[in-house]
Prior knowledge:
Blueprint: E1 2-8, H1 20-30, E2 33-38, E3 53-57, H2 64-76, H3 78-94, H4 101-128, E4 133-138, H5 143-149, E5 157-162, H6 180-186, E6 189-192, H7 195-205, E7 212-214, E8 234-240, H8 249-256, E9 264-270, H9 276-286, E10 293-299, H10 303-313, E11 317-320, H11 329-335, E12 341-344, E13 358-361, H12 367-378, H13 382-399, H14 402-421
Parallel strand pairs: 1-2, 1-4, 2-3, 4-5, 5-6, 6-7, 8-9, 8-11, 9-10, 11-12, 12-13
Helix pairs in contact: 1-14, 4-5, 8-9, 8-12
Amino acid sequence: MRTLIFITSRFPFEPGEAFIDSEFPFLCSAFEKKIIITRNVTLIKQKNIPKDVRLYRHNPSSSLKEYMQIPLLLLRNFRKTAQLIKEELHFRKGKGKKNGVFKNLLLLKAIIKSLQLRDFISDVIKTEIPQGEILLYSYWMNTGARAICMLDNIKAVRITRAHRVDLYEEEADNGYLPLVRHTFLKLDAIFFISEHGKAYFENSHGLIHDKNIVSRLGIINPLPFRAEINDSKVFRIVSCSSLIKVKRVHLLIGALALVKTSERIIWHHFGEGPLEDELKTLAAKVLGNSGVIEYKFMGRVMNDQIMKFYSENKPDLFVNTSSSEGIPVSIMEAQSFGIPVIATDTGGTSEIIGKQTGILIPVDFSTEELARNIENILYLEPVEKTRMKKAIYENWKMNFNAFTNFKNFINNIDTIMLSTRQ
């Protein structure tokens, strides 16, 4: 029997981690026993998962009881904690990244959180008593990955994915990702979602090994592809992201105000976040009286409903203005309908957008530059739009189709697990 112990941030609870939806069925088919440990105890709405999946929730914020037990936790793990700190400081010093007092406190906090989750995972294993081979899989290269690497008394294969905030140190909270080397040494594989991410990791840390593997995400689109262009009198623009600082939706609003056209444009944004009121106010001020640009903040919409919207409304353009990305799943979804994309050249975005499938713009683009690129798509000849839609769809089908990418991911896991038996 093979057992999967899958550590997530929120999945299977909503909202968040929607990109796991496409991957999880492939994991379920590859393992007889499935256990999810999610680091969230507040969300209520749960996605549909197979009935035989065992679900545990671990509080990532220490309870009062855990706070009181921290001195005992550190005392029990004094030697390990001291060794981790020593190794971390030596490694960072060798890379010219000395820790100050604040980062040392963050390091200690990361160790404590990882030890707490490690003990929780250990208790789950004692409860479930898995037989045969075990795969410990952390979806993020953060606390979950560090915790499974501290389970010294468990025989298992240990893997993680690496995305963006858990990979690019400048994007992490407080600009620090603790215990990267220790995690790397203990893992059997790190699956990067982009070539850019793998190169960043190896160049930044000097941790080069064949267990660093590029394994792209993918999405499933069961809806039919239609190459014909939108024959309505509306040029429909869509964007999809949380309304947070890094997504820079305000720049899209500014650019839309500068688009020179007499055609009717409707912009739909899918997603919510702390900047929602501020961005709605800005849109009302900048676009409200234009007479040409209409806009609709759609709020939080489930992925299947977004896909249905794309299928029924045939948007003409998708725009991503983020300052930092891995490879956006939102772009994969748009490409699965042949929608042209304008996006910033950050992270692995250049691996999904080429000259035949959209337009890459610099991260520090101007609103005027984005406006002109929107016009470039707007005024394409119908035959060129149809050609582009076909090329975009083929790019998705060849490179970001879940059936292909996640089957390859499972094959990689099978190979790693087989090698550990020998």
